[in-house]
Design brief:
The structure holds two protein chains of two kinds. Chain A is of the alpha+beta class. Chain A has one domain: Nonspecific Lipid-transfer Protein, Chain A, CATH 3.30.1050.10. Helix content of chain A is about 35%, strand content about 30%. Chain A is built from four helices and five strands; from the N terminus they run αββββααβα. Chain A has a five-stranded mixed β-sheet. The longest helix of chain A has 17 residues. Chain A is globular and about 35 Å long. Chain B is an alpha+beta fold. Chain B has three domains: about 130 residues, Orthogonal Bundle (Butyryl-Coa Dehydrogenase, subunit A, domain 1), CATH 1.10.540.10; about 120 residues, Butyryl-CoA Dehydrogenase, subunit A, domain 2 (Beta Barrel); about 140 residues, Butyryl-CoA Dehydrogenase, subunit A, domain 3, CATH 1.20.140. In chain B, about 50% of the residues lie in helices and about 10% in strands. In chain B, the strands form two sheets. In chain B, strands 2-3-7-6 form a four-stranded antiparallel β-sheet. Chain B has a three-stranded mixed β-sheet with strand order 1-4-5. In chain B, α1 packs parallel to α3, α9 runs parallel beside α11 and α10 runs antiparallel to α11. Classes of the chains: A alpha+beta, B alpha+beta. Chains A and B meet through α3, β5 and α4 of A and α1 and α2 of B.
Amino acid sequence: MSDIDAKIRRMMADMPAAFNPEKAEGVNAVIQYNLTGEGGSQWQSRIAGGVCTVEEGVAENPTLTITMDANDYVEMMAGRLDGMQAFMTGKIKVSGDIMLASRLMTFFN
Amino acid sequence: MPIEFEIPESVKNQSNLTEMVAEQVIRKVSRYFDEHEHERPWEYINFIWPFIQQMEAANLKRSLEVKKNGHGKASGNGQKKQSTFQVRMIHMIENLSWGDAGIYLCTPSSALAGAAIQAVGTPDQKERFLDRFTHGKPKWGAMAMTEPQAGSDTSNIQTTARLDPETNEWVLNGEKIFVTNGSLASRESEGILVIWATLDRSLGRAGMRPFVVEAGTPGMTVTKLEEKLGIRASDTAAIVFQDCRIPYDNILGSPELKKPGARTEKGFKGAMKTFDSSRPWVAASAMGIARAAFEFTRDTLAAQGITIPVDAAYHELSAIQRDLLDMETQLKAGWLLTVRSAALMDAGQPNSLEASMAKVKSGQVVTRITQKCVELLGPLGYSRELLVEKWMRDAKINDIYEGTGQINTLIVARRILGYTRKELK
């Protein structure tokens, strides 16, 4: 429970370092992550000018909002849950720039 | 045994995805592609392609397994696990068509060509023709049946297939019109077309066979792109075959011909099974358009304070409320028929009658509902600033393609009354 919470915090902290600006050329977006259920939290990520930042909280006008179960998020980032499968089976709910969502994973190593 | 009307969880989850795509990818460009016929919705195509690839791969795998083992994949308790493929397909199609029926038709997939190959293809043919839809760039499958002088009277087709014994190739000659995805399948991608040709015109329907032609085969030329009333985003093409040569193994089913008067050959009947799959798909598309129009109209009226009181006495209802209630009823009826025809197929039970019923009903429902919505919305309904007028135009095709309303009504009548084609025309 707090285990999931701790894992998410670590993953979010690692996100800027894993960001590959070359893969995200010209991208200017605010992404809202709403991780629900036990251990859940909310995060806003900003990608602009080849830099990715992450901080806790709710963004005002996100380009894209991703809502999913906190545990599913951990499993997906750890490679134990296939992102596309999750998408297809409704485990990931997206609103806003859906095209950006499909490219998102490619921005990170 | 109780009747279950709940959508299975797995179907519902997948449905959420297509609802999202319809709302956020398709609707945004719906008007643009209506006004720019023959331009391709590449953003939608490229987005949906990875998901289609997965579905095609799973479907191909399962159909090859069934052939090998002679029975379906066993679940834990040894019983054959019921497929949900058709039910999932119609939910997906309904959702995407709610977005835009023309753009839905641009979905890269094996489509009707795949349905024909699945219905009567050998395992080798399935592998050879359908594997391409599981990887690489987007591709399309198309079916070519109609000709300038043959529409509902399919036995009148004149495209011929002659066997060249020296090269062991079929030589195709003829002209096909109104081929959905004809250009995309034949020359804009590495797709396939299933074309119906006759081995012997004197035998009528009994001489007809489906043949697979791969994209880029010499002798196959797109001669015209149709300009249409509705589903304008959809690619509709005329294709000419002139001494088009294809390998012997590209025929679907057996080339053996029965003598006239003998019962229609099993191969031909098997190929007609394609339509048991595709008619529910078309019905689902119609129901998506109908739901789009109905929901928009209901919500617009509700914003004006006009709602539907479900427990009011009939004489207390206004004309508009009666219209709304009628539309909602028709919507539910058409959808349930469609779901039933798909569910029967998933259960491995015959569904020809139900497929035709769903097709007839949905064609009637969507044309009535969309016209009524334009009427109820008045100037809003007529204006091109909204999509309602477009939905009315998009609706009409559902009465026409994949077996007209009249033809499907005949089929239903024959089945119910027990008449043959000769006895009831």
